[in-house]
Write a structure and sequence with these properties.
alpha+beta, Heat Shock Protein 90, Actin, Chain A, domain 4, four-stranded mixed sheet, 29% strand, globular
Length: 198
Amino acid sequence: MKSEWKVEAEYPEFNLPCDNHIKAWLTAHVATMMGDFSGIADADIPELLMNVDISCRVFANSPTAIGVLFLTTRDFNHTTHASASYQAFNFSTEGKPLLFDSLFAEPRRALEIFAEQAPKLLRTRDDAAEFEKLDDWIAEGAAPNPDNFSCYIVEPDGVRIFFQEYQVAPYYLGMPDILVPLAALAPAGPSAEVWPMR
């Protein structure tokens, strides 16, 4: 069997404690994928090629937070559609993790607001007509549970939610994101330390 594994990854360095957090996640993430690859390699496949690309985007427009969004794309044997997934991290400007429960006085209420806002915001996008046909899909992918809203970036005027592949839409609509405005999140009690100007 011909077997080949290739991974390219980019990641930011801030010279802050969060650098270790990011590197630890990236190391574990690649190790997990290599383990999956080894499992596939045991199968009776004449050729096994895996290309992994990990890119990142830094959000540094908030005076109190730094966001890092990773996009992992996996191409197995040059498939027609490579698989993709997001992972997001939020840190204070001192490099400490900003966990979801620390963002709101009532985290559960914040999840409920995300679930209320998501269908409306998805239907205000440029491709809104496509989302009109996806009520059941959106209802499941945007239900008020932590897994559905685990990929988020803190922004000055709200929280940007990134949906995973197939979470709220079919492949051809990509991986949409929405910005839930701070005004809508007011009932959940946004942290004054994270949003001091609210």
